[in-house]
Amino acid sequence: MNKSKRPFGKILMTLMIVFFYLPIVYMVVFSFNDGKSLTHFTGFSLRWYRHMLESQDMMEALYTTFSIALLATFISTVAGTIAAIGLSKSKKIIRNIMEQINNLPMMNPEIVTAIGFMLLFITFKVEKGYATMLLAHIAFCIPYVMLSVMPKIKQLDPNLADAAMDLGCTPWQALVKVIVPQITPGIVSGALIAFTMSVDDFIISYFVTGGGVKNLSIIVYTMSKRVNPSINAVSTLVVVIITVVLLAINLAPALAAKRGKKEVIVRRNRVIPLTMAAVAAIGIMFVVGLGSGGGDRPFEGQTLYLYNWGEYTGENIIGDFEEATGAKVVQENFDSNEQMYIKVANGESYDILVPSDYMIQRLIQEELLQKLDHSKLDCLDKLAEEVKGLPYDPGNEYSVPYFWGTVGIVYDTNKVTVKELEREGFGIFLNEKYKGDVYLYDSERDSFMMALKSLGYSMNTSDEREIQEAYEWLVQCVKTMDTEIVTDEIIDNMAQGRKALGLIYSGDATYVMDENEDMGYYMPESGTNIWSDAMVIPKNAKNPELAHAFINFASDYDGAYDNSSYVGYTSANQEVIDAIYGEGGDYEGISAYLPRTDNENDEVFEYNEETKKIMGDLWSRVKIAASNAD
User: Fold this and answer.
1) Range of the domain at 336
2) What is the pLDDT of residues 585-623, one digit of tens each?
3) Do 76 and 204 lie in a common domain?
4) In a shared domain, residues 469 and 556
5) CB 349 within 8 A of CB 541
6) Mean pLDDT of the 412-430 span
7) Is 47 among the domain residues?
C-alpha cells in the first residue's frame, strides 16, 4: 500500500516544483527578450540588462535593498540574540509575556505594522528616507531572530554559564565562548530569515520611505504598472544573487567537513558574514560610476524632488537633466491622483508634481500650488495650441502640460469592424456577440465616462439620476458580458490579441498598435475624455528655481521627445508631435498617438468632490457585481 502511494507522491512533488519554479524560468527567459512584450519572445538580446545597468533608479534601488538587508540582519541578529539570552534568565511570567509580545508583529498583517511605523515617524516628525526604512526593517526582523534563537537556548543546560565562570571565564567569555557556539545554528537561521524578510519586504518599506529612497520591491511594483521588460532583468539579477548566497551557505559546511571538525565550526561562524559581505560588494559595484560631472552646471549640488506617475519618464531625460544642470533628481512615484493628493495635503514637500487635469483644479482651489514665474519659462511657445489654456488652468498660471491624450476603444480588427464601432460606439461593450471577449479599465472616472457618453450625457454631470443610469449600464455590462476588469495588464494582453476589445488610454493603445498591426483604436462620436497631465510646483516647494529649469527641460524638444517616444503618450511639444507621428517617426501613422481635437462632444474632466464620492461608491458595487457574476 505504501509502495503504491510513492509514484503519486513523486508526481505531486514534481508538479509542486514546476508550479513554483516555472514562473521564475519564464521570467529569466524573457529577461533576454529583444522586444518590449512581457509575453511574446521576439529574439535574444541583452537590451534590458543594458537598460537596467544604465538606470540610476534601479541601481540605487539594488544598493538600497542589499545595504539595508545587511545592516538590518546584522543589527537585528545581535539585538535578537542578546534579547533571547536575557529573556531566558528572566522570571517565567515575564518570559511568557515577552514571548507573546514578540509573536504579535509576526501574527499582525504587515499593513498594520506598516501604518503603525508610518504614524510613529509622522508623530515624531522624523523625515522619512533611508534611516526610517532601516529602523523599520530592524524592528520587524528582531522577532524572527528571537523566535529562531529561543529553542536553542531552551536546549542548553541552565548551569552551563555558571560552570564556565567557575572554571575561570568572565561573564563575557562565558557568553561568547560557551553560550554563543552552542546556539550558533539558531543564530544562523535567524540571520537568514531576517535577511530574507528584509530583501523581500514591500509593504512596510513602501509606507516608511521617502525622499526618493526605494528598494527593489518598490521599484518592481512601480515598473509593473506599465510594460517594462527591465523588470525581468532586475528580478533575474536578484535571483542570481540569492542563488549564489544559498550555494555558498550550503556548500561551505560540506567542503569544510573534509578539513576536520574544528574547521567546520570556524567556517560555520564565518559563512554568513562572508556571503553577506560578498552581496554588499556586488551592490556597491553596481552603483559605482553613477555620478556625472563637467561643464557649466548652474545648479551644482542642488536636489530636485519630483513626484510623478510610475514609468512616466523617458530613458535619458533624468540623467541628461542632471548632466546639464549639476543637480540631482530624486523621483518618487504615485499610482493615482488621490495618492499624490494625500501626501501633498499632509505637507510632504516636492518641487514638481505631475497630476491630472481635475486634480490640478482641486489643488488650485485648495491653494496648494504656487503660480509659475513665466519670466523663467521659455517653453510655452513650443506647446501645441490644444493643450494651452485648458479649463482647469485657463492662463497656464499654475501648470505646463506634460502629456495629453484620450480614452477610447482598442480593438482587434480581425474580430471587430469599424462599422460596428461607428454604429454602437461605447454601446459595443453591451453587445453579447463579444461576451467574454471584453476588458474594462479599473477606473471609476473613465468607466463612468464611457457609460455616460453611451447614454448621451455629459461625463461631468452631477445629476444623480443620470449617474444612476450609468451605474445600471455598467452593472449590465459586467453581468451579461462576462467582462474582465483590469488595469495596465490590458496593454500586453491586447498587444497579444487576447480579447476583441477593451477600454484604454490612448498612449497605451499607441504601444499596442505599434506591437500588433491587427489592433485599432476608436473614439466614439458621442465623445470621450480629453485628458491632460501637467507639471505644477507645490506651494511648499523648496527649490522652485530648479523646478522651473526642469519644466523648461522636459518641455524642450530633446526632453519631450525622449519622454514621448519611450512612454508612448502624446507630447505637449508640437514639434515633437509632428516628428513622432510623421514620416519616419517612432509612431508614424498610429492614430492613437494623435488626440482628436475636432469633436464638440469631447470633454475635459472637472473636479467635483461629491460626484467623485458617489461614483467611487457605485464603482465598488459594479466590481462586486462583476465578481458575483464570475
Assistant:
1) 303-403+532-581
2) 999 999 999 999 999 999 999 999 999 999 999 999 999
3) yes
4) no
5) yes
6) 97
7) no
